[in-house]
Amino acid sequence: MEMMRSRGKRLAVYIAAALLLLLLAGCAGWQSGSSFKDEFDPQDRSPVTVVKKWFKSMEWKEGEDGARNPENGRDFAYFLEVVNPELLMDPTGQFIGPEQLRDLEDRWNSREWEAEFNGVVLEEAEKVEGESAVVKITDGKIRYIGQKMFGTVEYKTDSFKDKEGEIYLRWYEDPVNDPLLQVARMDEYRERFADIAGKGRWVVVGGLDLSEEKAWGEEVSR
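User: That's the sequence. What structure does it adopt?
Assistant: Structure tokens below.
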């Protein structure tokens, strides 16, 4: 039970970490729209696209009418693809198993919290092939709510424009122990991870609020 609580806290970090890159206060007007000013190709494996997938995984999926709807849940597969694999392993380095994975999915799909991005602009600042990368957030907005996750029962809207941030990524490649190899055996994820599991990919491991120098997770070597 203690291990599950610990993992739950680590999961919350991936949700709340985005807010460390935001203004501490501000309630500008909000108009729902595209998460990113440029659409992205889900097949692209670049660091910038990985960060977009991470942000996208926090939003409710869009319905046929193009509107985000809680009934559709969130794209947990995007989250699994870009998260630090350590979150999906137990202390011995083994996959946590289907039951605990579904517990994480329930937490990710909770209606207690919401996050929605608009017009986010990302730039690849640094990249060392096969090692590390840094992606900067230079523009865009986020609207969020959630007492447990964000400490607010009212919608708040913040802007990246005047408070740039950085996301740190690490190259991960383990053809034997990659936890996605186990996830890909589950029916609901088999197709999504067929060409990803066990192969090299960028994963989100940390970040920094440039204006206040608040860091979380791992930092990349400069």
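The helical segments are 2-16, 47-56, 76-82, 98-108, 147-150, 180-183, 190-193.
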